[in-house]
Write a structure and sequence with these properties.
The structure holds two protein chains of two kinds.
Chain A lengths: L3 E4 L2 E4 L5 E7 L5 E7 L5 E7 L6 E2 L7 E3 L5 E6 L8 E8 L7 E3 L3 E5 L1
Parallel strand pairs in A: 2-11
Antiparallel strand pairs in A: 1-3, 3-8, 4-5, 4-9, 5-6, 7-8, 9-10, 9-11
Chain B lengths: L8 E5 L4 E6 L8 E7 L6 E6 L4 E2 L4 E4 L5 E6 L8 E8 L14 E6 L1
Parallel strand pairs in B: 1-9
Antiparallel strand pairs in B: 2-7, 3-4, 3-8, 5-6, 6-7, 8-9
Classes of the chains: A mainly beta, B mainly beta.
Chain lengths: ~110, ~110
């Protein structure tokens, strides 16, 4: 039981490049989330999904797109990376049903130069 | 959503109880108190949650005052591995997408 996994663990991008971060969970959770964490700050929600085929905007969605084609996967895309998107990205999953108990992945460290 | 106030940092001696306070004076009657922690460079970890009654699990105890305006997370025998940022989060029941809103938290340093 791997829990929540994220790919890749580290990435360096040049301004304007694109990339996709992959999150996978094996707990059969309905809900999945993407957060970002900047140095010295708490996590901020980017986008989330309450089920396969659904997505919704969080607190800081601009510059990101997401897709949830399969229940176990949640993809975060950066179409044209900017230095302001340098951050650590965390994925999480939860059962939903009114619970706020979430399980987090190990994070992806992204640097945009 | 109720806001929370936590001290920015605290120290605790190894083996002693760590008592982390959280003020949520604007909490509504049906809002839950959740606690998470984040060990350096790792993803946050769920610890415990409660509504009115005190709660205990294998990680910690949660004490909520009778008026529910504040709570305390207790780590009964802190170890060096408990050094982390602890987040107190107040959330309403029902389907809100399960979204968590993280504040600045309390940075707990457990010292030998």
């Amino acid at each position: 039981n791997a829990g929540v996994t994220q790919t890749p663990k580290f990435r360096v991008l040049k301004t304007g490049q694109s990339m996709t971060l992959l999150c996978a969970q094996d707990m059969n959770h309905e809900y999945m989330y993407w957060y970002r964490q900047d140095p010295g700050m708490g996590l901020r929600l980017i986008h989330y999904s309450v089920g396969e085929g659904t997505t919704a905007k969080g607190e800081v969605p601009d510059g990101y797109n997401v897709s949830r084609l399969k229940k176990q996967n949640f993809l975060l895309g950066l179409e044209s990376a900017a230095p302001s998107q340098t951050s650590v990205y965390f994925c999480a999953s939860g059962s939903g049903r009114g619970s706020y108990e979430q399980y987090f992945g190990p994070g992806t460290r992204l640097t945009v130069t | 959503d109720a806001k929370t106030t936590q001290p920015p940092s605290m120290d605790c001696a190894e083996g002693r109880a760590a008592n982390l306070p959280c003020n949520h004076s604007t909490i509504s009657g049906n809002e839950y108190v959740y606690w998470y922690r984040q060990i350096h460079s790792q993803g946050p970890q769920y610890i415990i949650h409660g509504l009115k009654n005190n709660e205990t699990n294998e990680m910690a105890s949660l004490i909520i005052t009778e008026d529910r305006k504040s709570s305390t997370l207790i780590l009964p025998h802190a170890t060096l591995r408990d050094t982390a940022v602890y987040y107190c989060i107040v959330r309403p029941p029902g389907n809100q997408g399960g979204k968590l809103i993280f504040g600045q938290g309390t940075e707990l340093s457990v010292k030998p």
